Description:
This protein is mainly alpha-helical. The chain is 62% helix and 0% strand. The chain has one domain (6-84). The longest helix is centred in the N-terminal third of the chain and has 17 residues, at 21-37.
Amino acid sequence: MNTETDERFERLLGEAFGTDAPGTRVVARQARDLADSGQFRADAGRELTAGEVVENLDDAPDGLSLPERWNWWMGALELAYGGYDRFRVVRWAGA
């Protein structure tokens, strides 16, 4: 996400949503992957910034955890443009 560092973005997420470190790390990582993919830029016509992420996550229904907010937004982007399911946060129960 242009010049923001991952640590700064994680701190911003924690301040905005009061979440735990693992939740902020996973959402920050997914946001970085989304930004690096260029998909949001191609679909929305603008760069993905930390402010953009926080603003959209803030629109999610109350009572959702940070990863659930992220998935809510990815669901909205999936409906609008397609191709965003791969950025959802999912639980992995490795072998």
